[in-house]
Amino acid sequence: MCHDFLFDATFWQDLSKLDQFAAEQVRKEGCPHCGARLHSARYPRKPRGVNRSVLGEQYECRFSYCCEKDGCRKRCTPPSVRFLGRKVYLGVVITLICALEQGLTPRRKAHLIDELDLWPQTFARWQQWWREHVPGTRHWQSLRARLLPGSGAEPLPDALLRQLTADDLAGRVSRFLQLMMPLTSASCSRSVRLDQFPQKM
Ligand SMILES: [Zn+2]
């Protein structure tokens, strides 16, 4: 599999636009607890593994909101195709390297881990996350019933990534992360409609 798109600024910008689109939908609907207006309260982020010059400064924060109403003031962090919860590495990297794992020679894998500035322990934790945490979530169970009916215990992320169709691997990874969005936020379970995204990804 070719992962050259990791070094393509356009790929990363497109993901940013999707996040922006999702965040705007969440903002328009207001606080999920009381319906009051939401104010921007972005989280600063320092994603690792991909060069800042490729990512651009948009990757230095994650969209997040705070309810304006006294007595509520709750946080609402929209789901994201870029950030998987609080993980320091971007969702693309976490998905790709775990999916590639089975097809990689030990030498190639070591090279990629090095290239992404990744600790082997971190990599092991991600695998555990995909294999033990995600399959137990309600979101994944409903997704599996819809997209992979009758499938066994094939490991994630491979099982789903293989099933998706797009022009290239970059497109499949992007689609995969769109499907995984509900897992990326604990404070905002509101679903977003990316099928209304105005640009073709
Ligand atoms: Zn509120």
Helix-strand blueprint:
Layout: H1 9-29, E1 38-40, E2 43-44, H2 52-55, E3 61-62, E4 65-67, E5 75-76, H3 91-100, H4 106-115, H5 120-133, H6 138-147, H7 158-163, H8 169-180
Antiparallel strand pairs: 1-4, 2-3, 4-5
Bound molecules: zinc ion.
Q: What would your notes on this structure say?
A:
This protein is mainly alpha-helical. It has one domain (4-195). The protein has 8 helices and 5 strands. The strands form 2 sheets. It has a 3-stranded antiparallel β-sheet, with helices on one face. The longest helix is centred in the first third of the chain and has 21 residues, at 9-29. It is globular. The site of zinc ion has 8 residues, from loops.
Number of strands: 5
The sequence of SSEs as H and E is HEEHEEEHHHHHH
Count of spatially separate domains:
1
Gross morphology? globular
Low-pLDDT segments: none
Strand content: 5-15%
Tell me the strand order in the biggest sheet: 1-4-5
The small-molecule ligands in this entry are: zinc ion
The radius of gyration computed from the alpha-carbon positions, rounded to a whole number of angstroms, is 17 Å
Which oligomerization state do the chains in this entry correspond to? Answer: single chain
Estimate percent helicity.
40-55%
Terminal residue distance: 20 Å
SS summary, helix count: 8
Mean pLDDT: 88
Quickly describe the structure.
Helix content is 43%, strand content 6%. With 201 residues, it is mainly alpha-helical.
